[in-house]
């Protein structure tokens, strides 16, 4: 009776074990390659799946469908014989419509992609100078992407994006470039400073010239005012009832002008005055001035 009771339980246990071994789970954004007796059977999608137990069906691999990134460093030479190191990042993924080729045709897809990128870069970069490489690195990356994408599509891979993240010239070349750039900046700075000094000098000269011009205008106006004043005084004296000759009028005015000049000289803080040593000195000065005017 005990044996009869255990047999159903044993059958149930075996069934449960077989059932559990037949069930398997595939994660989201991945697929499972199922083989039967070593031959491809099917591609299992994400979720719960069933396979034949006892090793008849086995999961050969689980393939990621998510976006992957490969980073490589490529050393090559430009057209002007400068060695450069390029850091390249390639984003790729498995084509969901061609998973079997992605798994069975390539053993190491990442290495294969790197080889294609290195070959493409070593074909494109030597056509450009170092300056052109810096200017057109995005165009080169796009060209490499198209070339590698075409090759890898036959193996079930999609190249989403290729980026040249860094262009590093040889250390000596980089130092030389920095020195040239520094020298150019210093030359521009010197030119700017020289131009600024030139502007200062020209501005100062213009200011000095304007000052002299205004000073001359002031002197001319001053002299004109003096002459106008003398003319007005002469006219007033002529129109007055006092009978004076022109020579007498000029003598009075010149003497008055002379005394005004002495007064102005004394008002500027001078403590010494040079005057004639005898009373007739003033008359001598007047006579000398009149003689000078007549001589002219």
From TrEMBL:
It comes from the Bacteria. SUPFAM superfamilies: Band 7/SPFH domain (SSF117892). GO terms for biological process: proteolysis. Residues 21-181 form the Band domain. The keyword Membrane applies. One of its GO terms (molecular function) is peptidase activity. The chain crosses the membrane at residues 6-26. Keywords: Hydrolase, Membrane, Protease, Transmembrane, Transmembrane helix. The keyword Protease applies. InterPro entries: Band7/mec-2_domain (IPR050710), Band_7 (IPR001107), Band_7/SPFH_dom_sf (IPR036013). This is Regulator of protease activity HflC (Stomatin/prohibitin superfamily).
């Amino acid at each position: 009776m005990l044996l009869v009771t255990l047999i159903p339980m044993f059958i149930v246990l075996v069934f449960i074990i077989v059932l559990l071994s037949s069930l398997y789970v595939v994660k989201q954004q991945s697929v499972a390659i199922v083989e039967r007796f070593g031959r491809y059977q099917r591609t299992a999608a994400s979720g719960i799946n069933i396979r034949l137990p006892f090793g008849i069906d086995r999961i050969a691999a689980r393939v990621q469908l998510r976006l992957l990134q490969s980073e490589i460093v490529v050393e090559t030479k430009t057209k002007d014989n400068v060695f450069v190191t390029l850091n390249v990042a390639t984003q790729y993924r498995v084509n969901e419509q061609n998973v079997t080729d992605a798994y069975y045709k390539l053993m190491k897809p990442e290495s294969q992609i790197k080889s294609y990128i290195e070959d493409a870069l070593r074909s494109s970069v030597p056509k450009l100078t170092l300056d052109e490489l810096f200017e057109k690195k995005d165009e080169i990356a796009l060209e490499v992407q198209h070339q590698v994408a075409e090759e890898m599509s036959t193996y079930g891979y999609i190249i989403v994006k290729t980026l040249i993240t860094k262009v590093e010239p040889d250390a000596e070349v980089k130092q030389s470039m920095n020195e040239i750039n520094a020298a150019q900046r210093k030359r521009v700075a010197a030119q700017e400073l020289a131009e600024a000094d030139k502007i200062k000098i020209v501005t100062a000269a213009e200011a000095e010239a304007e000052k002299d011009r205004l000073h001359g205008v002031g002197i001319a106006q001053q002299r004109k005012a003096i002459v106008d004043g003398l003319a007005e005084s002469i006219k007033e004296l002529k129109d007055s009832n006092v009978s004076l000759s022109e020579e007498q009028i000029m003598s009075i005015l010149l003497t008055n002008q002379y005394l005004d000049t002495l007064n102005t000289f004394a008002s500027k803080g001078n403590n010494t005055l040079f005057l004639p040593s005898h009373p007739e000195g003033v008359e001598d000065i007047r006579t000398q001035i009149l003689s000078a005017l007549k001589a002219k």
